[in-house]
Amino acid sequence: MATGKVIWGRGVILILFIVYQGIRSEQNVALSKPSEQSSDQGRPDLVASKVVDGCLDRKMDNGCCTHTQGSGPKTAWWRVDMKELMTINSITITYTNTVERRDRLAGYHLYISNTTSTPQDGTLCYVDTSSTIDEVQLVVTHQCPFVGRYVTVYNYRTEPLRQSWYYQYALLELCELQVWGCPSACYGGNCNSTTGACFYCFTGTYGDFCNMTCPANCKDNACEKDTGTCVETDIYSKSGLFCCISNARDQMQNVTKRWISIISDLSSSYIVRRLEFITNFVRIKRSGFLR
User: Which of 3, 152, 216, 234 has the highest local Cβ count within 10 Å?
Assistant: First the structure.
């Protein structure tokens, strides 16, 4: 009996783990998005867009990588514009597979930002601090739990070099950059890893990508995520199915206010006139006309 309970318990743990993994899935939100870089090598097959084309081939001559200018620059950068704010979980960098070029990638910085005034705008997610050339990873995933629109890979070279084994010029030979996350409209930053559709929406929005607004007559602005149907209807809403009830209620309130005002005015007038009558009566009686 004890063994059976242990096996059943493991099964529950496994199921919970699978469900959790499914909820936490993300997609590559940088795929096929606009990109740019500080300079070009000159070859039409080594351009910035190659880094977000979905190709993971790391051979420089196979048309899946980019290459900034090789001789002279002291700074180099590459950037992708995801076109909207994204809830980012992690970023995977794939560099060309020539081992001798580790000295070129070494020392790079990874930024997430909402502006592009400088290559170093935004939040620094990662900086390579490898002390030896063998420590530089050419395919690596960095955890970057931030919200932003732009991702920038930046590198620079100074005199003297930060490490003696660094390549003397700043250049980038990226083959792919994948940003794993979801549109920021997704509640909790959770979406389908294949379609990018949100699992949950913030209150007031609905749709696959949570980009539609719930009807105005929904109570507490809450509606079904898939259909937009109100979870509960506000019968006093001024729009939608119950607009007439709401308008009638408002009209009745206005009429009531007017009658209260009229009655108040009449009451005031009656009281004044009554006081005037009493005052005149007393005055006449004192004069001797009334015995």
Answer: 152
What is the rounded distance in angstroms from the CA atom of residue 67 to the CA atom of residue 16? 45
- In three-state secondary structure terms, 267 is helix
Distance between CA atoms of residues 272 and 215, nearest Å = 53
What is the residue whose two structure tokens read 């206005």?
254
CA distance 202 to 89: 19
Calpha distance 198→225 (Å, rounded): 9
Nearest to 41 by CA among 8, 1, 69: 69
Q: Which fold has domain 25-187?
A: Jelly Rolls (2.60.120)
Q: Flag whether the pTM goes above 0.85.
A: no
**Measured over all CA atoms, what is the biggest interatomic distance in the chain, rounded to whole angstroms?**
130
